[in-house]
Amino acid sequence: MITTTYVIGHRNPDTDSIASAISYAALKQRLGDSSVIAAMAGAPNPQTRYILDRLEIPEPLFLADVHPKVRDTLKRQPVTVDRHASAYEALELFNKSGVRVLPVIDCDNKPCGILSLLRLSESYLLPCHDRIRQVTTSLSSLAKTLGGHFATGARDEVPLSLNLFIGAMLEESFSSRIDGYDPRELLIMTGNRRTIQLAAIERGVQVLVVTGGLPLEDDLLEQARAQNVTVLLTPHDTATAAWMARLSTPAFCLAEKEFAEIEVDKSLTALRQKLLVANVSAVLALEGDGTLAGVATKSSLLAPLPYKLILMDHNELGQAVPGAESVEITEVIDHHKLGNSHSNSPISFITSPVGSTCTLVGRRYRECGVEPEQKIAALLLAGILSDTVILKSPTTTAADHEMAAWLEERSGLTVAEFGRDIFAASSSLKNYGSVERVVAADFKLFTHEKYSIGLGQVEVIGFDEFYSMKEGLLDALAEVKRRDNLFIAGLMVTDITTETTLFLVEGHTRIAHVMEYPQLEPHLYELKNVMSRKKQMVPHLLKILARV
Q1: Strand residue runs (E) in 274-410
Q2: Exposure string (b/e) for 244-274, b if CB count within 10 Å is 16 or more?
Q3: Rounded to two decimals, what is the model's pTM?
Q4: Phi, psi of 526 (to 5 degrees)
């Protein structure tokens, strides 16, 4: 099984998140690991989309979640039995494959029942006394199982319930034994005993099986046709044929019609509920069209997942793609505060207080002695310029400046001009399409003791457009606060030209008394010289929460 590793940034990804994921996946591939794929946990914001379009770089794979699904642990090409196959064939499959459960499928590969080795064994080892003679079969299955051919009659898939009698005695004794039975419910099996054969034919039995590879005399054949008696000739001796006739029952007659099933795109949690809580031995996994995909058992819950994660630009599971807590994380590259949970094994964890994760990825290129392609160098530079607001943010470090200069040379772009283009092309809030998307575009959750807060941030050139959309943005923040049960939900609108942020907030009224920044109007504060959410806004809010 090939394991795929997804390099993925946080939810509501920004440019740094997506650019670092694409660039690091490209480095891994350059180093020979073709199983690494860049991914994203949300749609690109207008700024990121502009950069990708300008550089002609395709968007990463979108993963709405990585919750383990049934399909992820399922063994394809399951051992199955056709609905018309005999119990004998089913036993052969059980013996060859070692499985304990066989899905019974129709001609469209859709399950119509399930056959367990236990149930099949009980059917033949523990026969009910009042049904000890009963054989449920079809003419087709009987002929196939006995390796015989029809002297009269023909193959038919219609199931029949027959009473089996062996003609191994004098005709008088035999006739007395079958008296009282409906002749059309009799299966008579005998060798070259003409008197038994004649008695069966004269009564008009349903099936006469002649054993030992012996023919039926011509006059008896004519009578059999006249009496509508099916005559089957088999090479087996009578004892073997009698035993095998019992095993000619079609699988669908023995299968349990009620069985546990689940679609392949359902979660492993749902499968666990069926296997453990409902206490079933196997669950049939179905494709969307109802065809059989595989058989899930309790061992499926322990199978390794076919994918792993490398987290970029975050390390807290609360910001990761949904389901990340259930997937093996092999690496983390980040420039934020630590908030990760423990890992089950040692992993590569690269973190540094720089302004952009792209700075750390660029450093990895140099450490590995790999020269980034021109497009990747430009993408890394875009990530740095975006996250540091063209190297103006207080989070900007000497390492960011130095990496930006290194990437300038390899991308053929200049920091000042490329940075202006990026923000000029994406500064309009109308590019987001709706107030909800403005709020959600780069929205992150943070916790402090009993409080949970959410903060979004957008960069603009001038605040005129913001004021025209303010009421709608406030309504959107109120909905996010309610939906996520937050103490406060805020949006930082940062003017990169004046290096001033307007902070629009929906939350507890008491924060107005401790905010320590001018309140322009209800819900709105002016934060001069504040551009960084990570280094300035979040620490400030966490500090004042302790005083609320």
Answers
A1: 283-286, 292-296, 307-312, 329-334, 348-351
A2: bbbbbbbbbbbbeeebeebebebbbeebeeb
A3: 0.73
A4: -105, 125
Task: Please check whether residue 194 is in contact with residue 172, taking contact to mean a CB–CB distance below 8 angstroms.
Answer: no
- Separation CA 474–CA 60 (nearest Å): 31
**Beta partners for residue 294, in sequence order:** 285
Nearest to 155 by CA among 141, 170, 172: 141
Kindly report, residue by residue over 137-162, the tens digit of the pLDDT.
Answer: 999 999 999 999 999 998 889 999 99
Where does 33-77 show beta strands of DSSP type E? 36-40, 61-62
From CA 318, how far away is CA 295, in angstroms rounded? 34
User: First CA to last CA across the chain, in angstroms?
Assistant: 54
- Is the pLDDT at 271 greater than 60? The verdict is yes
**Domains of the chain with bracketed CATH:** 4-67+306-426 (3.90.1640.10), 87-254 (3.40.1390.20), 429-545 (3.10.310.20)
User: Rounded to whole angstroms, how far apart are CA atoms 401 and 394?
Assistant: 12
Q: Which two tokens stand for residue 527?
A: 């934060």
Three-point CA angle 541, 474, 65, nearest 5°: 75
CA 532 to CA 312: how far, in whole Å?
19
Residue 460 parent element (H or E): strand 451-460
Over residues 82-106, the pLDDT tens digits come to 999 999 999 999 999 988 899 999 9
